[in-house]
Design goal:
disordered N terminus, single chain, 14 helices, TIM Barrel, eight-stranded parallel beta barrel, 8 strands
């Protein structure tokens, strides 16, 4: 096959098909690699995708490259209107993963005739890409949630109320983008039904819905994440169950628990109680100086919680605390919407 003048037409056509699809697969892999690198910062995925590109490059034989100009491609430059609709990283990931999968399938079929090793390689990588696509999409979803946590300073935590859905919607209308729901009473069936309703409300207002403690309900309601205390399911197990698309927050109030949570990969931390609070009557408040000491080296988002209200929030803000979680101040308000608006306005002011 080294002398192109002696090739049969079928050999030329097959070589050209393999050549085009090797290029197509490697181009698609490069798009995925660059998003894993620059968009998601996932070094292990960058290495994995780069390895796929190198393997395909090594098997892009000269006989395939030399075939490109022997038969004119009558369909060169043909595009599809859907290519103009890839306006989000999610769509770009999916379309390029599909591009790689389809190209590898073509390579697998046509190289089976004269290059069984390449056919086997294409098949193995193709199946890897199915899983990789899902994982990149999951990390992409979590990346969006992480941005909401970084960009927002007020985190509302629910308390059991007969009109909890009404209060949550008022808080969302008031501009809060982070809602954590605590289950106090009711059957698991009722809790799940309630969680789904809150999830839909949060989706309506482009807010995150975090479930307290219950990983099963978080999964069943497709919540955006879970918040765990020190006596709840451990973070590593929760991550295995939830996958990489969900946010995991941790409550911590000492150096060891904070350090362990960060090391294990939590997305944010709730630290407190800052002051005495009716929701955690058994816990001694840490106080401002202790909070400042515990948080001086934290690089991930963290929220001060416990006894925080509109009377002390300015004091805390003036002392370097920028993110706050509130329960009673919002849930017990006669006008949660106005309360949320006022607090967010206060937090938006420069010190």
């Amino acid at each position: 096959m080294q002398n192109s003048q002696r090739r049969e037409p079928d050999d030329l056509q097959i070589s050209q098909i393999i050549d085009a699809n090797l290029d197509r697969a490697r181009e698609g892999l490069r798009v995925l690699e660059d998003w894993a690198r620059f968009g998601l910062g996932l070094e292990n995925y960058v290495i994995k995708i780069k390895n796929f590109r190198q393997i395909l490059g090594k098997n892009h034989l000269e006989v395939y490259k030399k075939s490109r100009n022997h038969i004119e491609d009558q369909c060169k430059g043909v595009s599809h209107v859907e290519q103009n609709n890839r306006k989000s990283p999610k769509k770009i990931i999916s379309s390029n993963a599909a591009r790689v999968q389809e190209a590898l399938r073509v390579i697998e079929e046509f190289s089976r005739i004269n290059n069984k090793e390449l056919s086997k390689i294409a098949s193995e990588i193709r199946y890897e890409i199915y899983t990789l696509e899902v994982e990149l999409l999951n990390f992409n979803t979590r990346k969006k949630s992480e941005k909401i946590i970084r960009d927002n300073v007020l985190y509302a935590i629910t308390d059991q109320k007969s009109n909890v859905l009404e209060k949550i919607e008022d808080i969302l209308i008031g501009g809060v983008k982070l809602i954590q729901h605590r289950f106090k009473t009711g059957t698991d069936k009722n809790r799940l039904e309630e969680a789904i309703k809150i999830k839909n409300l949060c989706k309506k207002y482009n807010a995150l819905f975090i479930v307290n403690d219950r990983v099963d309900i978080a999964l069943a309601s497709d919540a955006d994440g879970i918040h765990l205390g020190q006596n709840d399911l451990d973070l590593k197990t929760a991550r295995k169950l939830l996958g990489n698309s969900k946010i995991i927050g941790i409550s911590a109030n000492n150096e060891i628990d904070i350090s362990t949570s960060i090391k294990d990969g939590c997305d944010y931390i709730g630290i407190g109680p800052v002051f005495k609070t009716s929701t955690k009557k058994d816990k001694e408040p840490l106080g401002l100086e202790k909070i400042k000491f515990l948080t001086k080296d934290i690089k991930i988002p963290w929220f001060a919680i416990g006894g925080i209200n509109k009377k002390n929030i300015s004091f805390l803000k003036n002392n370097g605390i920028s993110k706050f979680a509130m329960v009673s101040e919002l849930m017990n308000s006669e006008d949660p919407k106005e309360e949320a608006i006022m607090i967010l306005k206060e937090l938006s002011h420069e010190n």
